Amino acid sequence: MITIESGENDTSHSEAKRVFKPQLEKRTLSDDELRAQKDLVVKIIFDRNSAYRKGKSDIVHSIMEGFPAAAVSRLVEYLNIRQNEMLKLLHITSATYSRRRKDGKLESVESDRVYRYTRLAALATDMFHGDGEAARHWLKSPAYAFKGETPLEHAQTEYGAREVENLIGRIRHGIPS
Q1: What digits encode the pLDDT tens for the residues 120-137?
Q2: Which DSSP category does 46 fall into?
Q3: Measured between alpha carbons, how far is 101 from 42 in angstroms, rounded to an integer?
Q4: Alpha-carbon span 108 to 113, nearest angstrom
Q5: 2-6 and 18-22 as β-strands: parallel, antiparallel, unpaired?
Q6: Cβ-contact 43, 70 below 8 angstroms
Q7: Could you tell me where the DSSP H helices lie in 104-157?
Q8: Quick one: residue 167, left, alpha or beta (phi over 0 = left, psi -120 to 50 = alpha)?
Q9: Which of 9, 34, 129, 171 is the most exposed place for a label (fewest CB within 10 A)?
Q10: Which of 27, 30, 36, 45 is nearest to 131 (CA)?
């Protein structure tokens, strides 16, 4: 809802000022939407069904311990991109990834990056009301807000990921971006 106000004390119509005051409804995620996001993150990282839920502190602990190396493959599959593209985004060389697969675990810094992209995938999927295909397309499409970079490319740093999250929030709330 947008309200338009003219100057209260102005008697001249030519000098009337119009002030736009957007009054956006604050939209908070419902419990079901939060649960759906969390379930998608758990599914991609741990390959568990929705009955298996990890709390926030469990995710932090899992990041510190190191995610299973297969989480990268599941993320590649979900985003529908080539593995070498995902490894480049995660700043992991193919030789390092081969070693991680043999060990079965990622290091904590690598796990944190995997979580970053998994969270963005879940947020984008939620933004498109559960339409994973539309979310994947959006994440891989150049964005004006990022000077032609895709949201996936822009999220290579934590700061960039926060900017992608902010863009998703603005889009969800109908703010032109």
Answers
A1: 999 999 999 989 999 999
A2: H
A3: 19
A4: 9
A5: antiparallel
A6: no
A7: 108-127, 132-139, 151-154
A8: alpha
A9: 9
A10: 36
